[in-house]
Amino acid sequence: LFGNLSSAGLGQSLLVARKQEGDAGPPAKAITVGVVFCGRQSPGAHTFVSQLYFNCKRLHSGSKVLGFVNGVDGLISGQAEAVTQEMAETFNSTGGLNMFGRSRDQIGGVGSWQTILDVCNRLQLDTLALMGTSYTANDALELANYFAGQAARCKVLFVPCAADGGFSNSLIECPLGFHTASRTLSNIVGNLCTDSKSAAKYWYFTRLMSRNSSHVVLEAALRTHPNVVLISEELAAKRCTLAQLVELVCDAVSLRASRGMNYGVLVLGEGLVNAIPEVSALLDELNTGAGRDQSLQEIEESLSPWSHALFASLPARMREGLLRARGSRGSLQLSHIPFEHMLERLVASRLQQRKSLGTFSGSFTAICFFFGYEARNAFPSPFDCQLAATMASTAALLAYSGASACALTVKNLTAPVEAWEPMAAPLLALCDASGSIPEGLVSVDSRPLALLQGRRDQWCLRDEYCNPGPIQYSGQVAASSPPLCVRAVQERRRDLVAQIASLLSKIQDNASLCNSDAVLQTVQIQLDSSLRCLQALSAEIAGNTSASSSTDESLLKDL
């Protein structure tokens, strides 16, 4: 699918920046780097651009950084503005994307690629950095492959920038902006938990902006301990129907009411509508044609009987959300679908039925909230500022070394900043079997979700609310530690290494007592195979690091 990259020898290796003692001297020439805000608003984007400017200037005083006005539209039209010292200092460590603005996520097909290449040639760009999520990553890979096929001077880099955390995988520990957004929303949810306990008469149904993934919901839940947490990926894996979901929530409300607690906090993500089979089927039908430039009657007639019955039963506000304008890629905008209102209405109706049957004697009054826009433009946390600065340093070095089709990433984020490992992951390594880069969803086998599952029952039965408070920017409580989910994943990895060491010790003890050569040979073959796999991965990373030692990746000294 991306043979041009292979032919040009680009985007094939994991590049690791290593600290080099002494002064290797500045690069021999000045370069020009262009930056495009492709994705949605995310904290830390301004910091990345400002720090990229500072790093490029530090490596060569004649280098330039250009920002494309209005994002993708400016990239296609060639409208770019040079970053100045004053601009970089003004926007550094601020929220939003108003430094240059954005327009849409989608770049387009081959026709757009040639237009973009013409713009890059005219501006004499050496590197084009695209900031966004999985949509942008796919566009960056296709654009890099096209540029390589045209033997273009300009190379393409991808900067993972996702406030909802929807671009996390084995190579990307944490995208830029997730820490700030999750901490901001955790503060809001924590305030609701405190208020719920104080008033002791309301249920707060809280929907958080998260697109299809539930990373923000999971992180906020681990920080605040709400009574009910609905993880989209978990419910989707169980094929949970709408009726089952309503019963699940009603059971939690009834259980707390039986203990005299007619209040609580429920947290869900906006992607939950896609996790419910019958609702997902309705969305698929609307996405494939129904609802576009049609009257309400035409929409209902175009739906299948099951979807028609569901659509007709929805509250008017939710039907309106389903019929609103689509996003730039033609799909429904999940933030416009007030699923928390629908869930609250169905739960209230079902509890009334239970009360008439004598199985529910409590009271239920719910208030619905939707939060997300409050977080994606927040001032970046100290952690995100440091992450943006580290990515910017790496981007500057990659631009000077001529790397392409790479995603900026930083490993070992649970360690002190001095021990962080800046890397460039090949975009090809992020592709699935279909050749596209998927959105990073919460794994049902992940350590963070297991932590939630282990505490879910006690959070429902008792008030163990935790209010983390607002983001702190100085002092001992400054928000400089990584997200809890990242820490949980790293702890799981360390546990696995310890378990392997323990197994090896036990194998050695038992092997000395074994009298069967056949059994010992089988164990030896299995261990040898495992060792070869680990050695191959270690050698690849070590080889790539060694091979790049003569390039400017090794110049990274100041994070």
Strands ordered across the widest β-sheet: 1-12-11-6-5-2-3-4
Measured between the Cα atoms of the first and last residue, the distance is: 36 Å
Shape: globular
Largest sheet report:
8 strands, mixed
Percent strand equals 5-15%
Mean pLDDT comes to 87
Q: How many strands?
A: 12
Give the low-pLDDT segments: 541-559
Helical run tally: 21
Task: Find the structural class using helix and strand composition.
Answer: alpha/beta
Radius of gyration over all CA atoms, rounded: 26 Å
- Binned, the helix content reads 40-55%
Topology:
Elements: H1 3-8, E1 15-16, E2 32-37, H2 45-59, E3 64-68, H3 72-77, E4 80-82, H4 85-91, H5 110-122, E5 127-132, H6 134-149, E6 155-160, H7 178-199, E7 203-208, H8 215-224, E8 228-230, H9 232-237, H10 242-257, E9 264-269, H11 272-275, H12 277-287, H13 296-302, H14 305-313, H15 316-322, H16 339-357, E10 366-371, H17 373-376, H18 382-401, E11 406-411, E12 421-426, H19 447-461, H20 484-511, H21 517-547
Parallel strand pairs: 2-3, 2-5, 5-6, 6-11, 7-9, 7-10, 8-9
Antiparallel strand pairs: 1-12, 3-4, 11-12
Helix pairs in contact: 2-4, 2-18, 7-8, 8-19, 10-16, 12-14
Explained architecture:
By secondary structure, this protein is α/β, with parallel strands linked by helices. 49% of the residues lie in helices and 11% in strands. It contains 21 helices and twelve strands. The protein has helices at residues 3-8, 45-59, 72-77, 85-91, 110-122, 134-149, 178-199, 215-224, 232-237, 242-257, 272-275, 277-287, 296-302, 305-313, 316-322, 339-357, 373-376, 382-401, 447-461, 484-511, 517-547, and strands at 15-16, 32-37, 64-68, 80-82, 127-132, 155-160, 203-208, 228-230, 264-269, 366-371, 406-411, 421-426. The chain has an eight-stranded mixed sheet, with helices on both faces. The protein has a four-stranded parallel sheet with strand order 8-9-7-10, sandwiched between helices. β2, α2 and β3 form a beta-alpha-beta unit. α12 packs across α14 (305-313). The longest helix is centred in the last third of the chain and has 31 residues, at 517-547. The two termini are 36 Å apart.
